[in-house]
Design goal:
The chain has about 450 residues and is mainly β. The chain is built from 1 helix and 32 strands. It folds into 2 domains: about 325 residues, Tachylectin-2, Chain A, CATH 2.115.10.20; about 110 residues, Jelly Rolls, CATH 2.60.120.560. The chain binds beta-D-fructofuranose.
Length: about 450
C-alpha cells in the first residue's frame, strides 16, 4: 500500500512515458486505434461521453508489455476519431487491492464516477466493487473512502466477482457484476438509490449449463429501445464474446433474452463494452486481442489495442455494428471505382502493407457471381484474405497471412440477412483488420510481415 496519495500513479505514469518514445517508433504501432503510450492493455473500461467529451479507459500494465498489476489507462476524444492520451486514472494503491480490474463510468450529477473491481490475488482471491470520482474532467480521480462499496459476493457465489456495469433506471441505479454459481457463469444484480449503498437483488442472468463457467465483463445497454446484454464467457468452447437482445425487468431484476449470438467472428475480440452517448446513440468498443497470444510488438515496449468505436443498432432481433460515422473524419485520399477489376479467379487485391486503409465495397448478391476473395496484400502475392461465397451468402476471414492461391481454411459464417444488398467495409491499421460484412464483423490483430 502507498503511503503518499498519488505516488503509485506518478511512478506508473513515469515508467510508461519512459518507454513511450520506443513504442511510438514501433512499425506496428496503430495510427488511429486506441493503444496505451506504452505497456500492456486489455479490456476497455469506463466508456462514457460527458460534457461532449468521449472517455475510454482501459486495463493497463504500465511497467511492461505483459499483463501485471492492473491500472486504468485513459484516452479522450471530442469526435471519436482523434484521441488524446490522458494521465493514468487508477493505480492499485489501497490495502484492499493489488489490481484495479475492469469496470464502467457514469455521470453522477456532473461528476465523472468510475466503478471498478478491486482485485486481490490471494489465495484466497478477493474481488470487491469500488468507486472513484473525478472533479477535474477526468485528469485525476479520488477513490471513495467507503471503498469497497460491495466487499464480497453474496453467499454461495464464486470469489470471481468482477467487472461492474452501472446504469440509471427509472427508480434508481442498477449494477451487474460477473460471477459464477455452481460452475455456471452468471451476472448478479445490485440496486442503489445513490451510487453508494448497494443492495443485492438476485441473479440478473445465468448460464443454462451451456454458456460458460464464469462470465467476465457483463454489460447491459439499451439499443434502439431494446435491452442488449453482452458478456465474455470463460469455458464456452467456440465462443469469445456473446450477446442477447431482450429486456430487463427492474421489478423482478431479471433479464430475458433471445438466443445467444457471437458479437464478432474474428479471432481478436473480447471484453466488449457498450454505452449510450449524450444523444442516446449506442456505441461499442472491445479489446482487439485475446488471452495467451504472442505479441511481436512487445520488443518495442507495448502490447494490445482496442477496436474502433462501433455504432450499434438492433435489426430483426440481431445486433448490427457499423463503424462510427465520425471515422470518416480520418479519410485522406479517396479512390472510387464504379466496377472493380474482378480477376477471372474471383480475386481482388489491394496493397495493404501496414497502411491505414478504409475499403468500401457494395454489391448485390446476384451480381457477385460465385463470390470473391479480397486480398489485403502484405507483400506481392500474399496477404490477408476475406472471402465471400455468393451461393452460401456467407463470409469467411481466415486469420493470418497466406499466399494467393493457397488452400484457405474457410470457416463460413452465413449472413442470415434477407437483404440482397451486401456491403463490405474494411478498416486496416498498421496491425489490425476489422471487416464489417453487413451484419457480420470479423476483427483480427495481424502482423502484416508475418508469414
Ligand atoms: C477480462 C478480464 C476481466 C478482468 C480483467 C483483468 O479480460 O479478465 O474479467 O477484470 O480482464 O485485467
Amino acid at each position: 500500500m502507498e503511503t503518499k496519495p498519488g505516488a503509485a500513479l506518478r511512478r506508473a505514469q513515469e515508467a510508461m512515458m519512459q518507454t513511450a518514445p520506443a513504442a511510438a517508433r514501433s512499425p506496428l504501432r496503430p495510427r488511429y486505434h486506441i493503444a496505451a503510450p506504452a505497456g500492456w492493455i486489455n479490456d476497455p473500461n469506463g466508456l462514457i461521453q460527458t460534457g461532449g467529451v468521449y472517455h475510454v479507459f482501459y486495463q493497463l500494465h504500465p511497467y511492461s508489455p505483459e499483463w501485471g498489476p492492473m491500472h486504468w489507462g485513459h484516452a479522450a476524444s471530442r469526435d471519436l476519431a482523434h484521441w488524446e492520451d490522458f494521465p493514468i486514472a487508477l493505480a492499485p494503491d489501497q490495502p484492499y487491492e493489488d489490481g484495479c480490474f475492469s469496470g464502467c463510468a457514469v455521470d453522477a450529477g456532473g461528476v465523472l464516477t468510475l466503478f471498478y473491481t478491486a482485485h486481490r490475488g490471494g489465495p484466497p482471491l478477493r474481488e470487491s466493487q469500488c468507486a472513484a470520482r473525478s472533479f477535474d474532467g477526468g485528469r485525476t480521480f479520488v477513490k471513495d473512502p467507503q471503498n469497497p462499496l460491495i466487499p464480497a459476493p453474496p453467499e454461495g457465489f464464486s470469489a470471481d466477482f468482477r467487472d461492474p456495469k452501472v446504469w440509471r433506471g427509472d427508480g434508481g441505479w442498477h449494477m451487474i457484476v460477473g460471477s459464477s454459481h455452481g460452475g455456471r457463469g452468471c451476472a448478479l444484480l445490485y440496486d442503489s438509490p445513490d451510487l453508494s449503498r448497494w443492495e443485492y437483488r438476485g441473479i440478473f442472468a445465468e448460464s443454462d449449463g451451456s454458456s460458460g463457467t464464469m462470465w467476465e465483463c457483463p454489460n447491459y445497454c439499451e439499443v434502439d429501445g431494446r435491452g442488449v446484454f453482452l458478456f465474455s464467457p470463460i469455458g464456452m468452447p467456440g465462443h469469445k464474446n456473446v450477446y442477447q437482445t431482450g429486456s430487463f425487468d427492474a421489478r423482478s431484476g431479471k433479464f430475458t433474452g433471445g438466443p445467444l449470438r457471437e458479437l464478432d467472428h474474428g479471432v481478436d475480440f473480447y471484453a466488449a463494452q457498450a454505452f449510450q452517448d449524450e444523444r442516446g446513440r449506442a456505441l461499442l468498443v472491445a479489446w482487439m486481442d485475446r488471452w495467451g497470444e504472442p505479441h511481436p510488438t512487445a520488443a518495442d515496449g507495448w502490447a494490445g489495442l482496442l477496436t474502433l468505436p462501433r455504432e450499434l443498432h438492433v435489426q430483426n432481433g440481431r445486433l448490427v455494428q457499423q463503424p462510427a460515422p465520425e471515422l470518416a473524419l480520418l479519410r485522406g485520399e479517396t479512390l472510387a471505382y464504379r466496377r472493380l477489376p474482378l480477376r477471372p479467379d474471383g480475386a481482388l487485391s489491394v496493397d495493404w502493407r501496414g497502411q491505414c486503409l478504409e475499403l468500401e465495397l457494395s454489391f448485390r448478391r446476384e451480381e457477385a457471381g460465385r463470390g470473391f476473395t479480397l486480398w489485403l496484400d502484405t507483400a506481392p502475392g500474399r496477404g490477408v484474405p476475406i472471402v465471400y461465397d455468393a451461393r452460401r451468402d456467407a463470409f469467411a476471414a481466415p486469420h493470418g497471412v497466406f499466399p494467393h492461391g493457397a488452400d484457405l481454411p474457410l470457416d463460413w459464417v452465413p449472413r442470415e440477412s434477407p437483404d440482397p444488398a451486401v456491403s463490405l467495409r474494411v478498416f486496416t491499421d498498421a496491425c489490425s483488420v476489422e471487416a464489417f460484412a453487413s451484419p457480420l464483423v470479423f476483427t483480427s490483430r495481424i502482423a502484416p510481415d508475418a508469414t
